[in-house]
Amino acid sequence: MTSELAKGMDVNMMSVQGFAGAPAPPVISTDPLMTSMPLISATDVNMPQRPPNQKTITASGEKVSFSAGLTLPPFQGEVGIIRFNKVLVNDGGHYDPHTGIFTAPTDGRYLVTAMLAAQRGEKVEAVLSVSNNSIQMLDSAGFSSEAAEPLSQEQCSCSGSTSLSLVVSMKQGDRMGLVLTAGKLAISDSPQIVSSFSAVLLYGSP
Prior knowledge:
This protein is mainly beta. It has strands spanning 65-69, 80-81, 86-91, 95-96, 101-103, 108-117, 124-130, 133-139, 161-170, 175-183, 196-204. The strands form two sheets. Strands 2, 4, 5, 7, 8 and 10 form a six-stranded antiparallel sheet that branches. A five-stranded antiparallel sheet has the order 3-1-11-6-9, with no helix packed on it. Strand 4 (95-96) and strand 5 (101-103) form a beta hairpin. It is globular, with a radius of gyration of 17 Å. The chain starts with 64 loop residues before the first strand and ends with a strand. It is found in: Secreted, Extracellular space, Extracellular matrix.
């Protein structure tokens, strides 16, 4: 199920390889997610390391799940790992709202869902990444094909939201996050969140 996107494709097609985090900035920065670079290379990025006190294995019968929403700016800069700061559920404590990263505590099949809402008049592009591998692209404006006609001046390339739902095979220690590659996310300080990221362990690997 894991796949890597080929290098060298047009940035409008959002092609990346080994997309696992925010790209390294052109100058030294104390924030590993801060960047102004529009292109991302697998050789330039890595998932944040797991905190030393985070669990690495699950106890027998432990429930593993998390769900988090976005109420604050997701990072500094234009692109980077989205830090869903408002934690709704974090059974097992394997999601870190400070980094936006979920670390798999055990081998298994995980149901992953996400919904990203763009600011009004904007669009969002993002990638679901698992341990330096691009799993799925998200684009609220949709994806063009060779047969598609170019957009006219009257047509808007933006849209309200984009979402995903899929089962991902993960191994113990794999790190997963959503990386915003273009556009602007809507921010809500109300009790109702507009962008969210969730995962739950369905069962161990067969």
